């Protein structure tokens, strides 16, 4: 049977809608994961109760399969009176697991900061909040942003599991179209392209953010070469 993408034409709107839904749930999930990873990474550096709690959270979410977490949120929580629809279950699940994996990256970036930098900030009279927001996080994220990008790409790939909780994202839609058209090769070729496009978009965004965070270093190198 020859390869023929025209068989997808009647289903193209549904497939594109599924891809758009995947992009939306992943975008919100990544935003939540970044915020949670930052908070957990900051907490995990210390030895207080907050630090121990943060490390426990990371251990739990890193050692439980993502599909189990999704099923617990979507099917388990209603048993205790907590109802979350499929879309927000996906966003929450991606944010929670992404925050766990991303927190180790942020924590490593913080630990890599020279102690003298923080001490100088304290001597200058900056408050603890100002030191964290103006000194610690900007420096840590310069080195952590690329590894965080790998975490975010994995979140996009993991989002395919969300089709198992009735979310009509691109994988679930593609599966339905394949069963209807009996042309799985063309349908899953589209699916491959969709995920490649989504992950490439995340990579481009991370590279742009990396350049922005490290622009002063790039400028210094360029000036040094010119000299």
Automatic annotation (TrEMBL):
Chief location: membrane
Keyword Nucleotidyltransferase: no
Mode of membrane association: Multi-pass membrane protein
GO-annotated biological processes: amino acid transport
Domain ABC transmembrane type-1: 19-210
Entry keyword set: Amino-acid transport, Cell membrane, Membrane, Transmembrane, Transmembrane helix, Transport
Pfam families listed in its UniProt record: BPD_transp_1
GO molecular function: transmembrane transporter activity
Transmembrane segments annotated in the record for this chain: 20-44, 56-76, 82-101, 148-167, 187-209
GO annotation, cellular component aspect: ATP-binding cassette (ABC) transporter complex
Compartment(s) where it occurs, according to its Swiss-Prot or TrEMBL record: Cell inner membrane; Cell membrane
Recorded superkingdom: Bacteria
Family per record: Belongs to the binding-protein-dependent transport system permease family. HisMQ subfamily.
Role of this protein: Part of the binding-protein-dependent transport system for glutamine; probably responsible for the translocation of the substrate across the membrane.
Designated name of the protein: Polar amino acid transport system permease protein/putative glutamine transport system permease protein
């Amino acid at each position: 049977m020859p390869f023929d993408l025209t068989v997808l034409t009647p289903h193209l709107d549904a497939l594109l809608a599924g891809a758009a839904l995947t992009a939306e749930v992943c975008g919100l999930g990544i935003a939540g994961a970044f915020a949670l990873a930052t908070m957990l990474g900051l907490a995990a550096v210390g030895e207080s109760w907050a630090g121990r709690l943060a490390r426990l959270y990371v251990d739990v979410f890193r050692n439980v399969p993502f599909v189990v977490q999704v099923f617990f949120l979507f099917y388990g929580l209603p048993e205790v009176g907590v109802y979350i629809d499929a879309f927000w279950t996906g966003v929450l699940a991606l944010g929670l697991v992404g925050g766990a994996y991303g927190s180790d990256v942020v924590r490593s970036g913080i630990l890599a900061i020279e102690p003298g930098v923080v001490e100088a900030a304290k001597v200058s009279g900056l408050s603890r909040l100002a030191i964290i927001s103006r000194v610690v996080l900007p420096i840590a994220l310069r080195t952590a942003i690329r590894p965080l990008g790998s975490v975010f790409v994995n979140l996009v790939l993991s989002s395919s599991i969300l089709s198992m909780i009735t979310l009509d994202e691109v994988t679930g839609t593609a599966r339905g179209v394949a069963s209807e058209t009996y042309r799985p090769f063309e349908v899953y070729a589209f699916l491959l392209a969709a995920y490649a496009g989504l992950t490439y978009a995340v990579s481009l965004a991370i590279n742009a953010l990396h350049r922005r965070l490290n622009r002063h270093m790039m400028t210094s190198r360029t000036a040094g070469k010119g000299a």
